[in-house]
Specification:
alpha+beta, PH-domain like, four-stranded antiparallel sheet, 6 helices, about 40% helix, PH domain-containing protein
Length: about 200
Amino acid sequence: MSPDDRLESATDANDETLEWLSLAGDGTDAGETIRWRGGPRIQTAYPWVGLAAAGVVAALAAVVLELLPVVALAGVPLPALVAFWALASVSRTEYVVTDRRIAIRRGVLGVDVDTVGLERVQNTAVSQHAIARVVGYGTVTIEAASGATFAFRNVEEFDAVHDRLEDQRHGGRTADLPGSVEEWEAILAEVRGWRRALER
């Protein structure tokens, strides 16, 4: 299966609307279409959940063994809150690639949305740390012409997302231009003819 096929099969992106991102053209055939949407793997929050569980068990054991006073149990909700925040942060992060731009939604209590047009994308890269390589996820980093950096962190199908962005960065910019390749080649030939005439 090609990267494009895997990317298209990763989700039925166009079956759902995005509440946090307005698509140009209201989803009509001539409008902006979603090519891919996803988010970080929920498993990336599990270490925080594990640490929180270990902290709660350690606090309870310390109280039972009388190493800490009972009042120390008042701090038990703190690690649980950290675990909840990590889970909520991962589950409320979403990445979208349309045929015109990329968008990232983040935020637990509020919503923060960052977008950049595909024509502004200068470079993309893929990275994986050791655990991500074993488990099968990675991060796609996107550098914009403005100098801003965007990252699709800990996503599955990261290689297919990267390949699609690279294809659109190199060849997709002309997709929104009116006319066919032949028409543009004819215009180029006409301009070259004018230039030769002016140089005589």
